[in-house]
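Reviewers of the previous submission asked for a worked example of the structure-prediction workflow described in the proposal, so we include one complete record here. The input consisted solely of the amino acid sequence. No template or homolog information was supplied to the procedure at any stage.
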Amino acid sequence: MLTAHWEQGYRTHGLWDSVQPNKRLGGIGLSPSHIKPLIYTAFVEVGPPSEQFTRQVFSLRQAKKLVEAYCRQQGYQILPE
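From that input alone, the workflow returned the following structure tokens.
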């Protein structure tokens, strides 16, 4: 089974393949702090290039759900944080 886990950074979070540690599946970036309201950019780097995407949303929870839902469609199980 394919598994993935989140790693938290200062201004980004990444969703990584648990077996291939250098394979980033997707992530979330945060807009610069001077921009209000804060904008979260969710992106996916796994799957066919035509299906990879970047979306901007207003909450971290919403951004994580977008990335996790797509990775689950690709056969990944998301490990708890």
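The chain has one domain: 2-78. We consider this example representative of the routine output the project will generate in years two and three.
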